[in-house]
Amino acid sequence: MWDVNVATGLSVAPVGDFLAGLKRTVGAAHVIRGVDDEAAPYRRDWTGQFSGSPIAVVKPKTTQEVAEVVKLCCDHGVSMVPTGGRTGLCGGGVPIGDGTSVLISLERMNSVRHLDQDGRSITVEAGVVLQTAQERARDRGLVFPLTFGAQGSAMIGGVLSTNAGGSNVVRYGTARELCIGIEAVLPNGSVINALTGLRKDNTGYDLRDLLIGAEGTLGIITAAVFKLFPEPKARTTGFLSLAALADAPRVLNVLQDRSGGGVEAFEYMPKAAVDVICRVFPKVRKPLEDAAQTGVFFEVTSPREDDAQSADGGGTRLESLVFSALEVLMEEGIVVDAMIAQSEQQRLDLWAMREAILEAITENGPAYHMDISLPLAAVAEFVATMDEAVSEMGFQPLTVGHLGDGNLHYALSAQPGRNWADLPLARAKQAAFALLAKLNGSFSAEHGIGQSKLDVMIDLKESSQLDAMRAIKTALDPSGLINPGKLIPVPRDP
Ligand SMILES: Cc1cc2nc3c(=O)[nH]c(=O)nc-3n(C[C@H](O)[C@H](O)[C@H](O)COP(=O)(O)OP(=O)(O)OC[C@H]3O[C@@H](n4cnc5c(N)ncnc54)[C@H](O)[C@@H]3O)c2cc1C
Q1: Cα–ligand 1 centroid distance for 155 (angstroms)
Q2: Could you report the per-residue pLDDT of 84-109, keeping only the tens digit for each?
Q3: 298 closest CA partner among 273, 257, 264, 335
Q4: Residue from 162, 186, 210, 363 whose mutation best tests the ligand 1 pocket (most atoms within 8 A of CB)
Q5: What cofactor does this chain's UniProt record say it requires (predicted)?
């Protein structure tokens, strides 16, 4: 007797046979039944919003084992959900429904295969934790730059599949721009090995680019090659109070020009966000005495030894470059107040404050998170218009963002004394997405679509692009077995 997979509509072979096959492939110790206690962390996503019980969690150790697991799932008509560090924020890494999919966890594929010192690249398996890759590069005097709050848990496969960004995209780009090679198992179980790490390779469609940002819907990434960079020799980190958000592009560009393009972080941290962090984490100290309505946390770095040398007036040469930029901006009345970290501890405290925001908002109470991007020049208009509109509806906007690349995390929470459930969330979302469309913005900047933004995707993504995505998906995964129900919305009835 065969069951029907509710996610794909296909028949599923009896679970007993199937589990035995999985155990033969990866070893019994590396297959957990979905209903077991040990599988509990895999059944729910980081936000707690999405859950689903898999048939089993299977943990292959090699690319070959991944390929065999995929073939076995195909043979049995079982859908598959790849999973890494489970820090994704859109419900992409949990199954839809119960008992229909297998979770393929890449966590045991955690080797750093190679670090090419001359070519300045690193080859890592999909289950390597981002922070581990950073540390391995640092051990060799190089930098793996991708940085964000979940770096201690997020894994390379997840990072690539969501095309993660974070706080230094302004300098180094997103995961896509850093990746120069990929190895993956396609939905039919075949392996593509494109781990050459070549900086130039124009030999047809770029399957690497197709898999990056595909959220596990086109195959399972098993390893990748990334660019590495020289380690900064000097750093200047600080917090600014700006007269107006509309001045942020000028501040960014003056800092860039004076430092030779050295801005590594340029993060929007307005008063409301800093207040929430300090309330939820009382040990965090406000960076400026007089709270900055328009706060910006920034870091400028330089890989040049010269910039780490002492300057005439004290401090490093890089610091004096930053001071000279700030002097100009203060004379123009654009920067109202500034704090520069005077020790490594102060620098780390500023970073810890920045990275605490998502947890602080989550602890603060119910909220709806938008992860949007805009042309830099349109950010101030978006924030001013939306803040006014949603405040009238009873929301308190809590915004932070990777301002340097026009990416805002615009969260709506309830004003004190207002009941979240009574607030007109649909109206607020509609207002935000209409304004985004008018300002040429994107409704999903760096976290992806997963399950959580399928409704927005079908409303706002150009239908010709959606059709092309569906055609690619069908060509590579005709049975729809890889991560069904994610990223690509089902077309609406005509
Ligand atoms: C506190 C916090 C801060 C964050 N800050 C940022 C930020 O600044 N910038 C940012 O971009 N993101 C951020 N995120 C989101 C998240 O960390 C990233 O999306 C991360 O890249 C996900 O990696 P993961 O290993 O946890 O993936 P998972 O959550 O395990 O999976 C994410 C998606 O990738 C797919 N997937 C996982 N592994 C593979 C694989 N090997 N092959 C194919 N598909 C796979 C899954 O099916 C799922 O669709 C943050 C999250 C948290 C909790």
Answers
A1: 7
A2: 999 999 999 999 988 899 999 999 99
A3: 264
A4: 162
A5: FAD
